[in-house]
Amino acid sequence: MGLSEPLFDMTEHQFKETLRKSGEGIPTKGADGMASRMAELDAAAAAAKRNGELQEAVCCLEESFVTKLQSYGAQADEVLTTCGELALSYNMLAMRMVEEEGFDEAYELLKKAEILTEPDGSLKNDFQKRLKLNAITLNNLGCFFKRKGKLQAALHYLNKAISIETQTKTAENPAGTLLNLCATLSQLGRHAQALKHAEKAIETLQNSKDSVGGAAAAKTSFLAIAYHNQAVEQEFLARRVDALNSYRQAVVLADKC
Q1: End-to-end CA distance of the chain
Q2: Residue 5: its pLDDT value, please?
Q3: Among 129, 142, 125, 225, which Cα is nearest to 185's?
Q4: At residue 67, what are phi and psi to the nearest 5 degrees?
Q5: Please, how many CA atoms are within 13 Å of residue 227, restricted to the half-sphere of its CB?
Q6: What HEC string does the chain produce?
Q7: Residue 2 confidence (pLDDT) above 90
Q8: Which of 17, 90, 96, 190 is the most exposed place for a label (fewest CB within 10 A)?
Q9: What local confidence, expressed as pLDDT, does residue 24 receive?
Protein backbone atom coordinates (compact mmCIF):
# COMPACT_ATOMS: atom_id res chain seq x y z
CA MET A 1 0.00 0.00 0.00
CA GLY A 2 1.15 3.55 -0.70
CA LEU A 3 3.27 4.82 -3.59
CA SER A 4 5.93 2.92 -5.50
CA GLU A 5 6.89 6.18 -7.25
CA PRO A 6 6.11 9.78 -6.26
CA LEU A 7 3.16 11.27 -8.14
CA PHE A 8 5.40 14.33 -8.56
CA ASP A 9 7.59 12.38 -11.03
CA MET A 10 4.78 10.73 -13.02
CA THR A 11 3.51 11.66 -16.46
CA GLU A 12 -0.13 12.77 -16.76
CA HIS A 13 -1.14 9.29 -17.96
CA GLN A 14 0.68 7.53 -15.12
CA PHE A 15 -0.84 10.00 -12.65
CA LYS A 16 -4.38 9.31 -13.84
CA GLU A 17 -3.84 5.55 -13.84
CA THR A 18 -2.42 5.57 -10.32
CA LEU A 19 -5.42 7.51 -9.01
CA ARG A 20 -7.85 5.27 -10.87
CA LYS A 21 -6.30 2.05 -9.56
CA SER A 22 -5.98 3.41 -6.02
CA GLY A 23 -9.68 4.25 -5.97
CA GLU A 24 -10.86 0.96 -7.44
CA GLY A 25 -9.84 -1.39 -4.64
CA ILE A 26 -11.86 -2.35 -1.59
CA PRO A 27 -11.20 0.19 1.21
CA THR A 28 -9.11 -1.31 4.01
CA LYS A 29 -10.19 1.22 6.68
CA GLY A 30 -6.62 2.04 7.59
CA ALA A 31 -5.55 -1.56 8.33
CA ASP A 32 -1.99 -2.70 8.92
CA GLY A 33 -0.91 0.37 10.81
CA MET A 34 -1.68 2.77 7.95
CA ALA A 35 -3.58 5.16 10.22
CA SER A 36 -0.42 6.13 12.09
CA ARG A 37 1.52 6.43 8.83
CA MET A 38 -1.10 8.79 7.42
CA ALA A 39 -0.96 10.92 10.56
CA GLU A 40 2.84 11.09 10.29
CA LEU A 41 2.64 12.15 6.64
CA ASP A 42 0.06 14.87 7.38
CA ALA A 43 2.18 16.23 10.22
CA ALA A 44 5.30 16.18 8.05
CA ALA A 45 3.45 18.01 5.24
CA ALA A 46 2.24 20.70 7.65
CA ALA A 47 5.74 21.18 9.07
CA ALA A 48 7.28 21.39 5.59
CA LYS A 49 4.74 24.04 4.58
CA ARG A 50 5.50 26.11 7.65
CA ASN A 51 9.18 25.97 6.74
CA GLY A 52 8.52 26.94 3.13
CA GLU A 53 9.61 23.52 1.87
CA LEU A 54 6.82 23.12 -0.67
CA GLN A 55 8.29 20.23 -2.64
CA GLU A 56 8.71 18.17 0.55
CA ALA A 57 5.13 19.07 1.55
CA VAL A 58 3.87 17.92 -1.85
CA CYS A 59 5.68 14.58 -1.57
CA CYS A 60 4.15 13.92 1.87
CA LEU A 61 0.67 14.96 0.73
CA GLU A 62 0.90 12.73 -2.34
CA GLU A 63 1.66 9.64 -0.28
CA SER A 64 -0.96 10.57 2.32
CA PHE A 65 -3.59 11.12 -0.38
CA VAL A 66 -3.01 7.81 -2.16
CA THR A 67 -2.84 5.88 1.13
CA LYS A 68 -6.14 7.41 2.28
CA LEU A 69 -7.69 6.72 -1.10
CA GLN A 70 -6.74 3.06 -0.79
CA SER A 71 -7.73 2.85 2.88
CA TYR A 72 -10.99 4.80 2.99
CA GLY A 73 -12.32 5.01 -0.56
CA ALA A 74 -12.82 7.99 -2.86
CA GLN A 75 -15.81 9.48 -1.04
CA ALA A 76 -14.28 9.71 2.44
CA ASP A 77 -13.91 13.14 4.00
CA GLU A 78 -10.27 12.41 4.81
CA VAL A 79 -9.58 11.79 1.11
CA LEU A 80 -11.36 14.94 -0.06
CA THR A 81 -9.55 17.10 2.50
CA THR A 82 -6.10 15.83 1.56
CA CYS A 83 -6.89 15.98 -2.14
CA GLY A 84 -7.79 19.65 -1.77
CA GLU A 85 -4.57 20.35 0.13
CA LEU A 86 -2.57 18.55 -2.55
CA ALA A 87 -4.21 20.44 -5.42
CA LEU A 88 -3.52 23.76 -3.69
CA SER A 89 0.07 22.75 -2.93
CA TYR A 90 0.64 21.76 -6.56
CA ASN A 91 -0.47 25.27 -7.52
CA MET A 92 1.72 26.99 -4.94
CA LEU A 93 4.81 25.00 -5.93
CA ALA A 94 4.11 25.47 -9.63
CA MET A 95 3.92 29.25 -9.36
CA ARG A 96 7.13 29.30 -7.35
CA MET A 97 8.75 27.31 -10.16
CA VAL A 98 7.39 29.75 -12.75
CA GLU A 99 9.12 32.57 -10.88
CA GLU A 100 12.33 30.51 -11.00
CA GLU A 101 11.72 29.77 -14.71
CA GLY A 102 11.29 26.06 -14.09
CA PHE A 103 8.55 26.02 -16.71
CA ASP A 104 8.44 22.31 -17.56
CA GLU A 105 8.09 21.25 -13.93
CA ALA A 106 5.54 24.00 -13.26
CA TYR A 107 3.38 22.91 -16.18
CA GLU A 108 3.36 19.27 -15.05
CA LEU A 109 2.28 20.31 -11.55
CA LEU A 110 -0.52 22.52 -12.86
CA LYS A 111 -1.79 19.74 -15.12
CA LYS A 112 -1.86 17.36 -12.14
CA ALA A 113 -3.84 19.94 -10.17
CA GLU A 114 -6.20 20.24 -13.14
CA ILE A 115 -6.70 16.45 -13.17
CA LEU A 116 -7.57 16.45 -9.46
CA THR A 117 -10.07 19.29 -9.88
CA GLU A 118 -11.77 18.45 -13.18
CA PRO A 119 -15.46 17.38 -13.07
CA ASP A 120 -14.72 13.63 -12.90
CA GLY A 121 -11.58 14.04 -10.77
CA SER A 122 -10.92 13.09 -7.18
CA LEU A 123 -12.84 16.10 -5.83
CA LYS A 124 -16.04 15.38 -7.76
CA ASN A 125 -17.89 14.64 -4.49
CA ASP A 126 -17.14 18.12 -3.08
CA PHE A 127 -18.60 20.46 -5.70
CA GLN A 128 -17.75 23.85 -4.15
CA LYS A 129 -14.19 22.90 -3.20
CA ARG A 130 -13.64 21.43 -6.67
CA LEU A 131 -14.87 24.60 -8.40
CA LYS A 132 -12.75 26.85 -6.20
CA LEU A 133 -9.56 24.86 -6.74
CA ASN A 134 -10.25 24.31 -10.43
CA ALA A 135 -10.58 28.07 -10.93
CA ILE A 136 -7.30 28.68 -9.07
CA THR A 137 -5.58 26.10 -11.28
CA LEU A 138 -7.00 27.50 -14.52
CA ASN A 139 -6.03 31.04 -13.52
CA ASN A 140 -2.50 29.87 -12.77
CA LEU A 141 -2.35 28.05 -16.12
CA GLY A 142 -3.36 31.36 -17.69
CA CYS A 143 -0.58 33.15 -15.82
CA PHE A 144 1.85 30.40 -16.86
CA PHE A 145 1.08 30.84 -20.56
CA LYS A 146 1.09 34.63 -20.27
CA ARG A 147 4.57 34.44 -18.76
CA LYS A 148 5.61 32.20 -21.68
CA GLY A 149 4.22 34.74 -24.17
CA LYS A 150 1.50 32.38 -25.40
CA LEU A 151 -1.32 34.89 -25.06
CA GLN A 152 -4.10 32.99 -26.82
CA ALA A 153 -3.53 29.98 -24.56
CA ALA A 154 -3.45 32.31 -21.56
CA LEU A 155 -6.75 33.86 -22.64
CA HIS A 156 -8.32 30.41 -23.02
CA TYR A 157 -7.50 29.37 -19.46
CA LEU A 158 -8.32 32.74 -17.90
CA ASN A 159 -11.74 32.78 -19.57
CA LYS A 160 -12.40 29.28 -18.25
CA ALA A 161 -11.35 30.40 -14.77
CA ILE A 162 -13.61 33.47 -14.66
CA SER A 163 -16.51 31.45 -16.03
CA ILE A 164 -16.18 29.09 -13.05
CA GLU A 165 -15.67 31.92 -10.55
CA THR A 166 -19.02 33.43 -11.53
CA GLN A 167 -20.69 30.15 -10.52
CA THR A 168 -19.43 29.92 -6.96
CA LYS A 169 -19.45 32.16 -3.90
CA THR A 170 -16.27 30.50 -2.63
CA ALA A 171 -14.08 31.78 -5.49
CA GLU A 172 -10.59 32.61 -4.24
CA ASN A 173 -9.89 35.83 -6.13
CA PRO A 174 -12.13 36.65 -9.13
CA ALA A 175 -10.80 40.23 -9.22
CA GLY A 176 -7.29 38.84 -9.69
CA THR A 177 -8.48 36.72 -12.62
CA LEU A 178 -10.19 39.77 -14.15
CA LEU A 179 -6.97 41.76 -13.86
CA ASN A 180 -5.02 38.92 -15.49
CA LEU A 181 -7.57 38.96 -18.32
CA CYS A 182 -7.17 42.74 -18.59
CA ALA A 183 -3.39 42.49 -18.88
CA THR A 184 -3.55 39.66 -21.43
CA LEU A 185 -6.11 41.43 -23.62
CA SER A 186 -4.05 44.61 -23.43
CA GLN A 187 -0.99 42.76 -24.71
CA LEU A 188 -3.15 41.48 -27.57
CA GLY A 189 -4.12 45.07 -28.40
CA ARG A 190 -7.76 44.52 -27.41
CA HIS A 191 -7.96 47.59 -25.19
CA ALA A 192 -11.74 48.11 -25.12
CA GLN A 193 -12.21 44.55 -23.81
CA ALA A 194 -9.29 44.97 -21.42
CA LEU A 195 -10.92 48.09 -20.00
CA LYS A 196 -14.17 46.25 -19.36
CA HIS A 197 -12.31 43.65 -17.29
CA ALA A 198 -10.51 46.35 -15.29
CA GLU A 199 -13.86 48.03 -14.58
CA LYS A 200 -15.38 44.69 -13.55
CA ALA A 201 -12.43 44.03 -11.24
CA ILE A 202 -12.99 47.39 -9.53
CA GLU A 203 -16.70 46.65 -9.15
CA THR A 204 -15.96 43.19 -7.75
CA LEU A 205 -13.48 44.55 -5.21
CA GLN A 206 -15.75 47.39 -4.13
CA ASN A 207 -18.58 44.92 -3.53
CA SER A 208 -16.42 42.48 -1.55
CA LYS A 209 -16.81 42.32 2.23
CA ASP A 210 -13.12 42.33 3.23
CA SER A 211 -12.80 45.38 5.47
CA VAL A 212 -10.41 44.53 8.30
CA GLY A 213 -6.82 43.40 8.86
CA GLY A 214 -4.76 41.76 6.14
CA ALA A 215 -7.78 41.16 3.91
CA ALA A 216 -8.55 44.88 3.85
CA ALA A 217 -4.93 45.70 2.99
CA ALA A 218 -4.95 43.17 0.14
CA LYS A 219 -8.22 44.59 -1.14
CA THR A 220 -6.77 48.13 -1.15
CA SER A 221 -3.67 46.91 -2.98
CA PHE A 222 -5.74 45.13 -5.62
CA LEU A 223 -7.93 48.21 -6.05
CA ALA A 224 -4.85 50.35 -6.65
CA ILE A 225 -3.69 47.90 -9.33
CA ALA A 226 -7.16 47.78 -10.88
CA TYR A 227 -7.42 51.58 -11.11
CA HIS A 228 -3.93 51.72 -12.62
CA ASN A 229 -4.88 49.10 -15.21
CA GLN A 230 -8.08 51.00 -15.93
CA ALA A 231 -6.06 54.17 -16.47
CA VAL A 232 -3.67 52.44 -18.85
CA GLU A 233 -6.51 51.14 -21.00
CA GLN A 234 -8.30 54.50 -20.95
CA GLU A 235 -5.08 56.11 -22.14
CA PHE A 236 -4.80 53.60 -24.99
CA LEU A 237 -8.36 54.52 -25.96
CA ALA A 238 -7.53 58.26 -25.90
CA ARG A 239 -9.80 58.88 -22.89
CA ARG A 240 -7.20 61.13 -21.30
CA VAL A 241 -9.34 62.88 -18.68
CA ASP A 242 -10.71 59.56 -17.46
CA ALA A 243 -7.21 58.11 -17.45
CA LEU A 244 -5.89 60.97 -15.34
CA ASN A 245 -8.68 60.52 -12.80
CA SER A 246 -8.01 56.77 -12.63
CA TYR A 247 -4.28 57.32 -12.16
CA ARG A 248 -5.03 59.74 -9.31
CA GLN A 249 -7.32 57.21 -7.63
CA ALA A 250 -4.63 54.53 -8.00
CA VAL A 251 -2.09 56.80 -6.27
CA VAL A 252 -4.49 57.58 -3.41
CA LEU A 253 -5.08 53.87 -2.83
CA ALA A 254 -1.42 52.95 -3.18
CA ASP A 255 -0.52 55.48 -0.47
CA LYS A 256 -2.83 53.59 1.92
CA CYS A 257 -1.08 50.26 1.38
Answers
A1: 50
A2: 58
A3: 142
A4: -65, -40
A5: 19
A6: CCCCCCHHHCCHHHHHHHHHHHHHCCCCCCCCCHHHHHHHHHHHHHHHHHCCCHHHHHHHHHHHHHHHHHHHCCCCHHHHHHHHHHHHHHHHHHHHHHHCCCHHHHHHHHHHHHHHHCCCCCCCCCHHHHHHHHHHHHHHHHHHHHHCCCHHHHHHHHHHHHHHHCCCCCCCCHHHHHHHHHHHHHHCCCHHHHHHHHHHHHHHHHHCCCCCHHHHHHHHHHHHHHHHHHHHHHHHCCCHHHHHHHHHHHHHHHHHC
A7: no
A8: 17
A9: 62
Residue 198 CB neighbour total at 10 angstroms? 27
**Most distant CA pair in the chain, distance:** 72
| One-letter amino acid for residue 155 of the chain | L
Of 128, 7, 137, the closest CA to residue 67 belongs to: 7
Q: How confident is the model at residue 135 (pLDDT cuts 50, 70, 90)?
A: very high
Query: How much is the pTM?
Result: 0.89
240: amino acid identity, one letter: R
Give the residue among 144, 184, 177, 148 at the shortest CA–CA distance from 160: 177
CA distance 196 to 202: 10
What count of residues does the chain have?
A: 257
Average pLDDT over residues 79-102: 96
